[in-house]
Structures are given as structure tokens and as C-alpha cells.
Design goal:
The chain is of the alpha+beta class. The chain contains three helices and 14 strands. Strands 4, 6, 7, 8, 11, 13 and 14 form a seven-stranded antiparallel β-sheet that branches. A four-stranded antiparallel β-sheet has the order 5-12-9-10, with no helix packed on it. Residues 43-51, 94-134, 276-285 and 287-308 have low confidence and may be disordered.
């Protein structure tokens, strides 16, 4: 820069006259040293900028989102398992009580059978605090089944059929089939085995082992006395108030491993007229006679239900 000695104005080096006062600068101006920029300045500036620059933020990784999703799924799974276990534990007392009651009745059954006691009356095998096993109720039938069939399996106890009967009804039963009594004999007919060696397998000692028994189940849960079905066909007549459903049983106290079944066919012969009235206090029970149906006086079982 050239300094004007006249007015003191600074002028560029290429000017020969002062821009302020016009004084020639060749003799009166002095060149002032300007700022010198070293060749390494840009590099230093670039280096300084590079040191001061902030690193750019990195994009968030997807792994974090995946881990959060996995932990959330595990939490929900564990929570669901805890709830299932909780409700299962809450329901245990009811099941334990029902199992204990069933075991008590089963033990009572085994004791009764070993002593050859008739178990038709359930009150004789239950403690005073227990009640007989409830039986599903049904509506008393208004009309009998005209022709019905029912399969009685050898590996079960009493089996309720869908064959309806009414008071004073006369009907005929026929039985087909053979059963296997495990550990005793195969191919046993519905008449059963009368030999002394099989007495230990009888539910009801007065009837043969493996014999097919029949009785009427009333709508209120009571049952009539059972009778074995004699030589097929057999003819029956109900008492005036004997209205309900027929049920059947094979006389064997260890039926679990038995095989085979009987097929019972029940055919209606006649029904009472609408003018006939029921006798209120007459003991209900059906009996058979090969030719003409008649009633036979027998003891009535008023238990609320038997073990199936």
C-alpha cells in the first residue's frame, strides 16, 4: 500500500496519484508492507477446520428394535404362563375334593363286594356325612318306546338306556351276543355262570356271574329292584307307577378288562288304557313270566342312585 504524505490516505500500490487529494505518490508515498500469507496457511486453516468439525451422527441400528421386540414377546409369554398356573392352582381344591369323594366311594364298593353284601342300597356303603352319587334327571316319559334296542357293554357297570317304559306296560325282551369275563371264561351268555368258583366276581351274590340284569330308573333318581333276564324272549309287566327308563348291568364286580356286549331288544306288547288310574302306594317292580306277563311282589329300592 502507498501512503500519501500530504493527506495520509492509503492507496493501492498500482496508483500513482492519491485517491483522496490527487498528490503524486511517486515521490511522496511510501509503500507499507501488506499482510503476508504463507503458502502453508491454507493447509493450516484446513487442518484447524478438520480438528474442529463435529462427527456426523450415525444411523440407529435395527438390532436394538429387534432386541426390544424379543424381550416384549418373552414377557408376554411368561405372563401368560403365570396366569395359566394361577388358575390351575385355584381349581385344584375342587378336583381334589371330587377325587377324594370318588376314592371313598370306590373303597366302600370294594369292601362291600369282598363281604358279598348287596350294594343296591347306596346308603349302606356311605358315611352319614356323604350323600349318594347324583344321577342326571330326565323328564318322565308320557308314552313307552314301541321298539327299542340298546347295547350293554361288558366293561361297564349300570348303563342307562333310552328305552322309555310306563306303568302297567307289557313288553317283551330278547337278548343277543356273548361277553368275555376276563380271567374266568370267554363267550359267556346273558344267563351268566352259576358255578361256585365265580362267586367272588358277582356284584349281586344272588345272581350268576356275568348275568344280564335289568331294572327301571325313575326320573327322580330312584330305581326299582333289578332282576336277571331269563331265557329269551322274556315277558314283563310294570307296576302302575313304574314309569322311567330301563337300565342294564352285567353282574361282574371287575369289568374293566372284559370284552364283548349284549344287544337287548325291547318290543311293546300293550299299554294301559287312559281310564286306568295309578295306585299311589303300590310298590313298583316288574317281573316276568314266560307266557303271560304278571307282577311278582319284591322289595323296592329307594336309593337315590347307584355308582356307574
Amino acid at each position: 500500500m502507498k501512503f500519501c504524505k500530504s493527506c495520509g490516505n492509503q492507496n493501492p500500490d498500482e496508483m500513482n496519484f492519491c485517491l483522496e487529494c490527487g498528490t503524486p505518490l511517486s515521490s511522496s508515498a511510501q509503500s507499507l508492507p501488506g499482510p503476508t500469507i504463507s503458502e502453508s496457511a491454507p493447509a493450516q486453516v484446513t487442518q484447524a477446520i478438520s480438528y474442529q468439525a463435529m462427527p456426523a451422527p450415525k444411523p440407529k441400528s435395527k438390532i436394538l428394535h429387534i432386541l426390544i421386540g424379543i424381550f416384549a414377546l418373552l414377557f408376554l409369554t411368561v405372563l401368560g404362563g403365570v396366569l395359566i398356573v394361577y388358575f390351575a392352582i385355584m381349581s385344584l381344591p375342587e378336583e381334589n375334593n371330587s377325587n377324594s369323594n370318588a376314592e371313598t366311594v370306590e373303597l366302600s364298593d370294594s369292601n362291600t363286594k369282598s363281604q358279598n353284601i348287596d350294594i343296591t342300597n347306596t346308603s349302606s356303603r356311605l358315611s352319614p356325612t356323604q350323600s349318594p352319587t347324583p344321577v342326571a334327571s330326565f323328564t318322565p316319559p308320557l308314552a313307552p318306546t314301541k321298539l327299542g334296542k340298546f347295547t350293554v357293554y361288558a366293561d361297564s357297570g349300570w348303563q342307562l338306556s333310552d328305552i322309555d317304559v310306563v306303568g302297567n306296560q307289557q313288553y317283551m325282551t330278547t337278548v343277543n351276543g356273548l361277553v368275555d369275563l376276563a380271567g374266568i371264561k370267554n363267550g359267556v351268555s346273558y344267563l351268566g355262570l352259576k358255578d361256585e368258583k365265580t362267586k367272588h366276581r358277582r356284584i349281586y351274590p344272588e345272581y350268576p356271574a356275568g348275568a344280564l340284569l335289568m331294572r327301571t330308573r325313575y326320573a327322580d333318581g330312584r330305581v326299582s329292584n333289578m332282576q336277571p333276564i331269563p331265557t329269551s324272549p322274556a315277558y314283563w309287566q310294570n307296576f302302575p307307577d313304574e314309569t322311567g327308563k330301563l337300565e342294564f348291568c352285567i353282574n361282574d364286580n371287575l369289568p374293566a378288562n372284559n370284552g364283548g356286549h349284549f344287544t337287548v331288544t325291547v318290543k311293546l306288547i300293550s299299554v294301559p288304557s287312559s281310564k286306568s288310574s295309578n295306585t299311589p302306594n303300590q310298590t313298583p317292580r316288574k317281573t316276568e313270566k314266560p307266557q303271560k306277563p304278571q307282577r311278582r311282589s319284591q322289595q323296592y329300592d329307594d336309593s337315590a342312585g347307584d355308582i356307574y
